[in-house]
Amino acid sequence: MASNEPAQVPQSDQNTQPNATAEPVSEQPVTTDVAYSVFKTWQKKTIVLAVSVAAVFSPMSTTIYLPALNQIASDLHVTSSQINLTVTTFLILQGIAPMMIAGFSDSTGRRPAYNFCFIVYIAANIGLALQRNYAALLVLRCMQSAGSSGTVALCNGVVADMVTSAERGIYIGYTSATSIIGPIIGPILGGIIAQYLGWWWIFWILTIWSGATFVLLLLFLPETCRKVVGDGSIPPPKLNQSLTGIIRERNRARAGIAVDAAQQEAVRKNYRLRFPNPLSTLVIATDKEGAALLYATTTAIPSQFGKIYGFDELQLGLVYIPFGSGSLISAFTTGKMIDWNYRKHAKRNGFPLTKNRYQDLTNFPIERARLEIALPLLYFSVLGMIGYGWVLDFRTNLAGPLIFLFIFGYGSMAAFQVLQILMIDIYPGDAAAATAANNLFRCLLGAGSTAVVVPMIDRMGVGWTYTFASLTWMASSPCLWALMWYGPRWRKAKKLKKDEKEKANAEKAGMEAEKSSEAAEPETINEDTMDGKQLEETGKAAAKAPTETRDQVKE
């Protein structure tokens, strides 16, 4: 895996020369000659693959549990509604927990946050494998969610640390692909384990798998947070180093290889060891640019397919394959569409397409470049959800609901992927917090829909339930249209306000420093302006001072 080794990076601060006929100078794109990251392409891909594997536990922990819901309800002597509550609370914590860890990782680093998440997650899985009552199941599922859910936000934070907006689509595609594997293999694996070993072995398998992943991260994953290591060339503090990184630093010190002290000091001043704070995420979540998607209400699959088609746990697990397959295909195709649309708008607006270089997006219509892809996909997935509800309602051949599950899986995950990238584009310095804010809305809506979907189906029927959910989802699309039209204006106003605040703070700091220096200067005596009495008093005071000093020394 990659390392945080110092690299020689050109330090030119000159911007690229713009086309004089393109747009006014103040509106020109700003592209620096300084490399955005010292990590090579193969290193970036390796790191992204590693954190994507770590992020798979959050979605997989949700779906691996679903085929065993009926079996768990029977063993613990509770109703289906009560057992569905464990899914609801899982989703609530899945939305809230990343708020705590995201701001912590954006200021303190990714590695300490990963260590915290995996320790909590592994402990929760051990507890779930050993418990045998409903209350313990409910509490430990919340703990399991708290440990696993932060890894998704951390994964996107790592991508933002190393990858520019021009290349971000394809890399987020990689992270989405591996995180989508969780929902695909989760129900299949959960169904097999529940059928042949018992549902508690689901959690032993997760313990072993996550433990092995944690060991690999401890050994090899480098710190990437830009507030800790800059572009990756600054060695991180001991708390943020991998075990192999510590050995590498010792060898480097013995060889006499030094890091630029000024550059290291400039980066380290941003380093803060803080307790997790959700406030930064809440600020992002309540901003105009925040948007949420309705979480896929797959919790109803076990009850509906079990009742309509008489499926057992293994067969229920296989039902999730079409949804997961559509999601997986979207991960490999959507990233390319996103980057293609970015290049189209960059060419139209005179933005240079430079890899691994920082670009100021203040005057770039990034909202339009992303949402032109997201909105059609959102409407496509709405059609899939409506069709899925009505073919289930009419109890058609099994192929009907499976086809619509595929359509819904492709459209919903592709739209979510685009919005995820847009959140990172808008908040590049707080990528993990931005992802957590987006995740908060999704999971809270998902928790609500999970809690009410079965009672709604019982009262309204499957067709009308999913039609209502689809129309509710579609009603949120005007927010995205507003973001596409007014987003650039909001960003410019926010940047102007931030620049004015920084300027005012700098002026205030300068005035305070000037006052401090004036107060530190000794008072000079101008004898020419003093009368005889003042000179006499000054002489007496000067003569008295040494005497007082001698008396103090004697004492």
TrEMBL record:
Keywords: Glycoprotein, Membrane, Transmembrane, Transmembrane helix, Transport
Biased amino acid composition, Polar residues: 1-20
Membrane topology, from the record: Multi-pass membrane protein
UniProt biased composition (Basic and acidic residues): 497-518, 530-539
Residues annotated as transmembrane: 47-69, 81-101, 113-130, 136-159, 171-193, 199-221, 373-391, 403-427, 463-487
Pfam families, alphabetized: MFS_1 (PF07690)
Subcellular localization: Membrane
Record's protein name: Major facilitator superfamily (MFS) profile domain-containing protein
